[in-house]
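Subject: Protein record for review, amino acid sequence with backbone structure tokens
Category: Structural biology, sequence-to-fold work with a learned token vocabulary.
Format: Residues in single-letter code; tokens as whole numbers, each standing for a residue.
Body of memo: The sequence and its backbone structure tokens, given next.
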Amino acid sequence: MLKGLTILLSDAELREFNEASRPYFGDKPFLQLSETEREQYLNLIIDGSQVKDPKLLRTLQKVYRLTRTRVFTVYYSNYPEHIVPRDENDVPILPPGDQHQITNPNTKRIVTGWDIANYKPQLSWEEEEERRARAKRLGMWHDE
């Protein structure tokens, strides 16, 4: 899933992200933090006020932003709708003991924040053509 990040982030940036948590969490790198500590670290990066080195902060926020975007892109685009039995509240019924089943986020039957925000991750061909035409009218698009 995160292979797409190697195009956007260097190994050095990923190492820096992993190591930069040490001063805040008892000398532990990000990969050794608990789930709660990871959440605290990400909030620390988002807030930015505790990271005194502006260059480091830019790197941490870049890694966070690109990783977050990649995770959401994969999460919302790779799972076709499956027919699964559902209970009276339309919640998927999983086999006994199965706690790791992906219950299909790419469906109109489950309302997500993306749905509430009316976010469309991919334009239809018609929408793309309309935006291209609008960009040409505004002088923002030049055919080569």
